[in-house]
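This part of the workshop introduces the protein records we will be handling. A record pairs a protein's sequence with a compact description of its fold. Comparing a sequence with its tokens is the quickest way to learn the format. The record below serves as our worked example for the rest of this section:
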Amino acid sequence: MALSSWVLDALYPQVCASCERLTKQAFAFCPDCARALRPLIRPWCSVCGTPLAGNHDQEVPCGECIRREPAFNRARAAFIYGQREQNSPLAMAIARFKYGRVVALAATLGELLLHSSPINPSQYDWVIPVPLTRDRLRWRGFNQALLLARFLAPANQIGPDVLERWKATAAQAELNRRDRQENVRDAFRVRPSWATKIRGASVLLIDDVMTTGATVHECSAALRRAGAENVDVVVLARVTLP
């Protein structure tokens, strides 16, 4: 090991993104936490990507998507954990990133999404992050969805400010399915300066987690109203309700 690398390791030891133990593992997860990551595997809903029971390979829409068709064409997640599994490695890493404001974890989680994404971002005209409210952005200091997007696509493919969250909304994590839908209804719009660029475009929407899909549905609806021809969604983690 070069002396400079030894000095850097001594001064800035790499810790697990979840449990914060020292580690040399890829993606900065220790061996125990890395083994506990749960990739989302088939079968899943052909539309929203939620996991389905059974062992069949055929993709079919889930009951929720049949009852209420989303504004996006399809949504996919790289990993999964339950809403009550807040001590799972990925849930803890995302919480440290978003609520602990450990911005350095953007590299860990961004690389993890890059290598695990079930959707190829290069197939789209624009890669667009889900926006935060102005107050939440001011408190956090960064938009986690934008930081993840920067690991998936080159800068000239990312539309960092296409969408605007123009209505203040409560935190989705505290709400049930129905309240989540009402909370974000019509809360997003495409900025006028982007209108001509979005019309007829194929768009990939990015967020860190997806639970009921209410937020990405409303974002997709705003993009559709602006004339986007296709809207797909990719997230790092799908969070399943009890």
Observations:
- The chain is about 35% helix and 15% strand.
- The first strand starts at residue 74 and ends at 82.
